[in-house]
Fold this sequence. Notes:
There is one protein chain. The protein is α/β, with parallel strands linked by helices. It has a single domain, classed as Bit1, CATH 3.40.1490.10. It has helices at about 35-45, 45-55, 85-100, 120-125, 140-145, 175, 210-225, 230-240, 250-260; strands at about 10-15, 70-80, 130-135, 150-155, 160-165, 165, 200-205, 245-250, 265-270, 280-285. Strands 1-9-10-7-8 form a five-stranded mixed β-sheet. Strands 2, 3, 4, 5 and 6 form a five-stranded mixed β-sheet that branches. It is globular, with a radius of gyration of 18 Å. Its EC number is 3.1.1.29. Keywords: Hydrolase.
Amino acid sequence: MAHFAACPSTPVPETTAPHGADVAAGHGDDVVARHGDDVVATHGADFVARHGVLTRGYGHRPDPDDPGAVLAMPIVLHIPKQDPPARSALLEAAAMATVALCLDPRVGTGPDGEPGPWREPYLAWTDARIRKVSRRARGAQWRAAQEVDGITVEHRGAQARALVPGPVGLLDPRISRLQIGGTDLPHDTPDDPPAGVPVLWIDAALDMTVGKAAAQVGHAAMLFAGSLDAEHAGAWAESGFVCAVRDADPGRWRHLTKRVADGTAVAVRDAGFTEVAPGSVTVIAVPG
């Protein structure tokens, strides 16, 4: 079972750090000295620093006055008209792509300390609210989205691409033309999650669209990675950030809420800009 470095005793808003997180502002660079030589030797000092960014939380800067300057991570969901993927598989791919981008070497620093090509926009985004906007694509639109900086994950027959965050008013036209709402996918009933795989439980009572749910499981994957110590975060990275996404009925949700209170699970509390009421707990992540 994975080990939490700092589990919250209350649900974690998507805009703040987990309670007890021990990394101050500094974009994770100072966290390397806090870990043993074995962790650094196994995963690299830059990985430990990139992971440190996730442990320190979000929302350190207020939103800009200009709505077009608000920062967001676009998530592109591949939903072909013929033979669309299972909803749970697509959400898993979205979660995996999101956290993969957050821990990618391009958001860190090079061997000589030079910033990676995605570092500046990524850190600006994590300093603010970690907003995400999901869009759907198929055919030529999906192929064009592959040309925009980001990471695509293929998982269980589903594909999702997390893109480098940036101002919503300056979105690449290959992405801005993609539809945000519209096509949804039916809820499916996949098998029980494999042993040892983290599970991102969605509150089924909220009845979120697949686009909204994709953003929420992306939040959850980031918070879960930040709640792990660097060693277990590195092990999860080596697995490709494999996770399971499942719907929780009211009984299971009550149990999961207790786990959050006990500090053995991590929760996403939504700001309520779309679909759900402000403060709604949308996803609870538990270790495998």
